[in-house]
Amino acid sequence: MISRDSFHTTGPMLLAPEWLMLPDGPHPDMAVLVQDGRFAAVGPLQEVQAAHPGLQPVVLAKHLLMPGLIDTHTHLTQSFGKALAFGEPSEIFRRIWVPMEQVLDADAAYLSAKLSAFESLRGGFTTVVDAGTRSEAGLEGVASAARDAGIRCVLGMICNDAAIEGDEAAARRILDGAAGFISRLEHDPLVHPSLAISIPEAATDRMLRDVAALTRESGRRFQTHVNEHLAAVERSLVARGLRPLELLHACGALNESALLAHATLLTPREIGLLRDSGAAVAYNPVASAWKGNAVLDAGLLGMLGVPFGLGTDGTRADGFRLMDAAEATQRLTHGLANGDSSCGGGWLWLDHATHLGASAAGLGTVTGAITTGLAADFLLVDLDVPEFMPSWDLSWELVRFGNRDQISAVFVNGSMRLWKGWPTDWDARALMREVAAVARRDVQRAPIQRVHPVADVHRARQQGA
């Protein structure tokens, strides 16, 4: 039986799992050498061991070593209000998230982001893509929280300027701040800078074009929400005369640096524009189920060669349930009607949750696969459970049976971040106690508007009626 003490805190580690998940599927009798935060060698156990005779392999019986999962779209400073959005109509950002995030001071933003990062690590995510906080004081707090929790984070800085249209000095300050943000984080080992526009009509054409150009030039991601639901499409049509994705194209902001969240409502023309642009998409199946009007046809995107990853949209930070939701949602909305019984196969969702998700996030040369030279971001998954006995098709089983309580350990940059679901170098219980007090204070003072009351009150009203 393996224990936390089986792993070195310093120096190289030679790990010999029963199964190793490579980009082409699971392989037995393999080994990886982890050194200086990276995979220094990957290959058959005998070969890797012979090349490093001074290292004693850590034998990981009945365990799978697999890449950490990638959440290509989330909101780290929304954790204080997670359950407030349940059962609510689609435009919850206006009534819940914006009011709540805007009351967060730097300390509260830090606590919210650290709680989200902790939940993500527990769910098997070693990388998260944050779409930007609406807390004016919170951006640096989010970066600090990611570092302290030990998660890899693509962090968006929001550059909306529609409210100050015509103020050239203010627009220049936003762009200068964006350039400075990218420069400050250029060499950060965990926090990767990104620029964001909340929704296309929240910025002027010029800001959209300039931000997209800046991310393209710097090799970073430009994030925005597009065509998420009917209200969003209509709002864009009323405000700018174009649908959100059309607006990006018209002002020159639809390029290969773009990471588009949702994209659930696409016309044939927009699908063509998306394919030709090189932009990537974050497919958020749980968000579609909880608050959407439609589901993105991720299988079609894959066939057209559009890069895409899986995203939580801050719904629940559980990577295995996300893969299951992606496959099930695709099957219910597209596969059933045309008799597609495999919906791409289990491997499709596993790939887009790992190395293809990393590429969509702009980190394909950094993480996402067990490959020599990439960052050692990985999970140790316990396969000695009834659900995986007998095992016939490990990739499919991970998608449909995998559960976060099977994750024995989470590593990011070669360092153990969690063991059996809890941090190894900081007090998560203390964080939870602090969050309980601060979250109650901030949610109570935020001008949140909910359509429905909490479940028990809602039940009582319905039964009374």
Automatic annotation (TrEMBL):
Keywords: Hydrolase, Metal-binding, Zinc. Residues 65-415 form the Amidohydrolase-related domain. Pfam families: Amidohydro_1, HUTI_composite_bact. Residues 31-54 form the Aminodeoxyfutalosine deaminase/Imidazolonepropionase-like composite domain. InterPro entries: Amidohydro-rel (IPR006680), Metal-dep_hydrolase_composite (IPR011059), Metal_Hydrolase (IPR032466), MQNX/HUTI_composite_N (IPR054418), MTA/SAH_deaminase (IPR050287). Gene3D superfamilies: Metal-dependent hydrolases, Urease, subunit C, domain 1. Belongs to the metallo-dependent hydrolases superfamily. ATZ/TRZ family. This is Amidohydrolase family protein. It comes from Variovorax dokdonensis. The lineage of its organism: Bacteria, Pseudomonadati, Pseudomonadota, Betaproteobacteria, Burkholderiales.
